[in-house]
Every structure is written in structure tokens, then in C-alpha cells.
Amino acid sequence: MPQPPVKVLLVDDDEDDYIITRDLISQIQDRQHQLAWVNSYQTGLAALQRNAYDICLLDYRLGERTGLELLRETQSLNRRPPVILLTGQGDHEIDLEAMMAGAADYLLKGQLDSDKLERAMRFAMADQHAKERLRRDRDLISRIMETSPVGIVVTDKDGNINFANHRAEEVLGLTKEAISRRSCSVLDWQVTDLEGNTLAGQSSPLKNVLESGLPVQDVRQVAGSSLPAESAAERRTLLSTNATPLFNAQGKIDGMVVTVEDITSRLLLEAQLRQSQKMESVGQLAAGVAHDINNILTVIQGHAGLLLNVAPKDSAPARSLKQILAASERAASFVRQLLTFSRKQIFRSKILDLNAVLENLATMLPPMLGEDIILETRYQPGLPHVDADAGMLEQIVMNLAVNARDAMPRGGRLLIASRSADIGADYTRQHPDARQGSFVCLTVTDTGCGMERKVLRRIFEPFFTTKKVGKGTGLGLATTYGIVKQHQGWIEVRSEVNAGTTFEVFLPVACEPHSAPPVPATPAEFVRGGDETILVVEDEPRLLELVRNVLKGYHYRVLIAASGAEAVRVWEENDGQIDLLLTDMIMPGGMTGGELAAELENRKPGLKVVFTSGYSSELVGRNISRNRHRFIAKPFLPLRLAQVIRNCLDDAPPVHVHGAPGHTAAHPAPATHTA
Fold it and tell me: Which domain holds residue 33?
């Protein structure tokens, strides 16, 4: 494809010189040229400003003005073509001044021929094109640097920053003044591990780049000490850095380019994700074993209760049986704590005033805290209500108060406060666990010893404790975490060594009011039996046998089944003449207790149902205070089982029992009914 002609502008006030130049250009063979001639300073200035030419041939003398003046006046034009100055006589000073004014070349008219002119124009245009490409490349690099989401810094051979793009200035907190002073060094950045913990005594990998000339990638570092003193203490930016050396013309290391990415938030999110996965795994483990453990504990408590009923009062066997019951209840409480932590515990909620709950606890806390700890309260008046389990809220406060007490062995101050909080998008971006909406915030602040970052990351892990052996189980804060999560809230912690700790518990404001559930009655010493027919469904043979014996002792007619399918067959064999269904929630055979109850209720509307379980995913998070079915949690004592059954048959207010130690009264001797 032929090249377009070269557009040449000649600025010369002598027509003879124009004719000579025209003839010389016409002799150029390699490429066509189009010559335009202007004969004055002003017309030459206007032509150059139009930027319509590839090259300009400029005569030194232009009437009263000179070509040198025109060079200087047009030097600031953005796209001025290359200019070759033509003169009738050689003058070294004019030559130098022309070059300083931006002339591409300086030619003597008397020594000019077509070859020299063609070569000078070709070189001038090539040089101009090279400069333009360089300008574009620099402009492109500059724009990339300034719009890059990654921070980029350039250092000298000593590691001092002499350039930083906009993102690097933001990440590192740098100012133009600090960069110009070269007062910030990347060699001051400390090396960290993958989780952002500083590795003391380890040399800077960036220093190795300057010494060895080998690049490094994905080095975890923390910036802070390289910043001005007034801001270093306020910033702790975790960085992922990559660095490559820069070499001078002699091949020696002259500095390096370092990319910096702020990974502070990312590491925080990764740590929270790991923690969440770890705690979820423990929760799944707790839930998985709770059912079987509670079945075993129910058998232990049941048989111990039956034996205690016939043992002589205050005898050695009675005392041993009471110890067995107490130990099994401790084990049951331990399992309940694990289930609470893992948010698998069943809870009974009602509309509550958090301030009222805190005020009820105010008289209980001082004796527990001791005389050396001053309790302060600060409750916001008119606090919105929450939908929560009162007992679990009290447990949160007690656990946090005990934790604060143990952090202040020499005394201090404990502040318990409440306030409303409207959480917006800005807050949730800084606190990943938070949600937007209206919340009530419970704050517990102590002036104790505080915690290190590595401890702070693990405080909600079950069994993790910094206390001495025998001083704590490591389940207090784990249980608190589980309760808060089960109530659709979250918990935040701030702590510094020797500066105290603050826990903030956020609970959602109640949306719709509902009636408060009846307060469970204390089991009576004697429970009336009856002649009703009860279908007991339980897949654990020893527990099934125990429940059958207990209920037969109260003169009920007891039918048994080990699965949902078997229970349906028993129902059909008895033509549905069954007054109450007592069923475990988790059973083999593909039918759960809930599904069995629904099936039999369809066949007999109004059927009385009592659910029992050591743990069931069907009941997780269910508010049983709003459910017409009864529920008794394993493990349970025979007397409590009898009371729940009797209340359900009599349609008395529900008694939701979670199992508790206590002496069982002697019940009637077993009747002659057969199962």
C-alpha cells in the first residue's frame, strides 16, 4: 500500500528560496512530498498552529522577525511538527539556540541538496514519531499507575520511597511531602505470617531484593513504622507485597518497584470464616453426640430415680443414688451448654424488656463479683423490646460478668449498659457479622487485664480457656456466643492488654408482640396416674423399656414401638384407640417423630402429643412456647415425665422440662396392665 505524501510547510520570505526548495523536494524519489509555502512570520505562526503538516522548513530571516523567534513562540504547542531551521550562513550560537528552542535540525542553504534535505526531514519525522510514542507510553503508564487498584511504589537503592501512586498513598498514609523528603522506607515494614502476626527478628525480604536482584512475590508485611510518627500509632495496615529490582545503565541495582495490596480486611474476613467453620464443626459434633448421650443419661437418671424411690431415706444406697443423679445432671448440663453453643438448643421466647432483665439481675451480681469490684449500670430509658428467652439472656449476662470478674483479680469496675442501635450499611461493611436494621445493644465493659490478639481470636471456641486447670471449663463464652447467634444476633469484642475488655451483644428489636408463655410449674411431689392408653415410640431399647415401666407404674395402658412405621402398625392394630403419643424426634426407618405425629393427627384430630429428644434438627430454633404440643427434653426423671404426661392428658398448661436433679416421690405400685 503506497504511503501518503509528506506534507511540508516552508516558511520563507524569499520567493527564490521557495523555488530552490521546491526543486530540491521534487528530486526526492522514495516518497511523494506536498509543499506549502507561506512568506511571513504571522502566516507561518498560523500554519503551525493549525497542525496540518508533517514537517516544517523554517528560514532564519523573516523580515523584521526571525525563525528563531517563531520557534520559541510555538514551542509550547502540543502537536507542533518537527522544525528544521534553514539559514544562509553558519552560526554556532544560532544553531545552539535553535536546538534549545526545539528545532529538529539546522541546515545551511548553500550546502543543501535533495539527498541531505530528504535525510534531514526523514530523521526529524522519525525522531518526532519516536518522541510521540514515548509520550503516549508514558501517558499510558501514568494513567495505569494512577487508576490501578493496587498500590505501586518506587524506591531508591536504599529502600526509600521516591514515588507512590494514588492507591499506595491511601494504603500507606503517605503524603507528597513525605515522599519528596524520602523519609519513608519500605525496609521498615515488618514481616508477618499468613494470618498477619508479626514475625520478630526476621529480615526484610525487600532488603534481599536490593542485595540479590531477585524478585519476591506475595510477602506478608505490616506497614506502620515507615509512616510519620503522628500517624504510625493509628495505622496497622497488613500488606501483600511483590517487588522487583530496577537496574541502571551500568546494570547495577538502582532501586525497586513494589506493589502493595491492603489485605487487612481480607485477612479479618478469612480469620472470621475459619473461626466460623471451626465453631460450626464443633457444633455439628456436639449435636451429633447429644442425642445418644442424652438417651444414655435418661436411662441412668430414670433407673437411679426408680431405685431412689424404694431406697431407705438417708441410707448409704440413697446417698449413692443421689450422687449418681447429681453427676448425670452435671453431664446433662454439659451437653446442654454444647447444644446452646452450637445453636441446637430449644428455647422459649417472649417479648422482653432487656432493662427489666438486667434490673432483676442487679441484686444477684454484687455478691458474685465480690467487694473489690464496683458494679455500674447505665440503661437507656424506653428501650425497644426484644423477642428472647429470658433465662438465656440472664445466662449471657452472668457469663460475661463472671468472665469480667476473673479478669479483675485485684478489683476494678464493671459497667453493664443498654442502648438502642440502628445499624446501617457503613457499619456492616466494617463489621462482617452485623446486619442492617434496628437492634438493642447490651454492653459489658471491665477494667481488667485485657487480652492479646491471639487470645481474642479464640475466646468463643468451646473448651478454650486461659484460666488455670480446674478454674473453668472454657464453655462460658462459647455458650454466650451460641445463645446470641440463636437469637439472630451477633457479639463484638474489643480488648487491649492492661486496658480492659468490652463485649457488645446485639439483639434484633421485636417485630410482632405475642403472649408470654406460662411459667413452668414446679413438679409436685405426687403425680396422679390414669387408665389412658399411651403409645410410646423410642428406638433406644433400654430407654423404651424404662419409659414403659415408669408409665405402667402410673397405671397407664402402654403400647410400644421402635420406629415410626411400627408405631403406625400398632395404631392400626388398636383401631386408633390411643389417647396420647409420646415419641422421640429422631428415629430410624425414614419417619421422624414430627412426621409420625402429623400422620396420626390426621387420623385422629385432637390427639395429645408429647415430643421428647436429646437433640433434634426439627426443633432447632423452634419457639416451643407457641406450639400446642408438649415437649420434654432428655434426660428427664420419671416424676417429671409423669407430670408432663398427666398435664397433657388433662390439657393443663404445658410444662416444658429440660431435666433437673431432684428427689422423686414414690409412685403407685405397677398395675397389672400389659404392654
Answer: 6-144
